[in-house]
Write a structure and sequence with these properties.
Immunoglobulin-like; 5-stranded antiparallel β-sheet; 1 helix; 10 strands; rod-shaped
Length: 159
């Protein structure tokens, strides 16, 4: 019968070889895993795609004037508040204009009337202030024209 015992130096050599192969296998596996594509935990922000913006049409500037004229008939007195909406010196017709007023201790502008400009850009309102009141005309603008507002006029009640 043969002795089946393996000498210690041979056993150590085999153990070192197995360990080396095991480590090499682990390293290979780790390299293969690292080489595999995986989601980036810190993705870079890519620029958003270029969106073609249609340029906004250039709006024509406007100017809104205001004036008043006392209306006296019988015992009723009022004022005609009128204005003209223009763009490049030409009257602008068929546009909505509001008449705003304020009075009192803590005045706030409120819309008191709305009108539409006539040919030549004219608009007119009749008012009968009971107390000292400030008025202005306001054009909100639209898809063709920029907004504008008039100067402020102050009217006193007729006594």
């Amino acid at each position: 019968m043969h002795d089946s015992r393996v000498p210690v130096p041979a056993r150590i050599a085999v153990a070192v070889a197995v360990a080396a192969l095991a480590v090499a296998g682990i390293m290979f596996t780790a390299s293969a895993v690292n080489a595999a594509p995986h989601p980036n935990p810190h993705p870079t922000v890519s620029p958003s795609p270029k969106v073609s913006h249609t340029p906004k049409p250039k709006l024509d500037p406007t100017k809104l004037s205001i004036s008043n004229k006392v209306i006296a008939h019988g015992k009723h007195h009022g004022d005609a508040v009128s204005g003209v909406l223009t763009s490049d010196g030409t009257g602008v017709a068929n546009e909505k204009v509001t008449l705003e007023a304020r009075s009192g201790v803590n005045p706030r502008w409120t819309v008191v009337a709305t009108g539409t400009t006539a040919t030549g850009g004219t608009v007119s309102f009749t008012v009968t202030p009971k107390v000292k009141t400030q008025y202005e005309l306001v054009f909100a603008g639209d898809s063709t024209y920029k907004a504008s507002d008039s100067d402020v006029i102050t009217l006193r009640p007729v006594k």
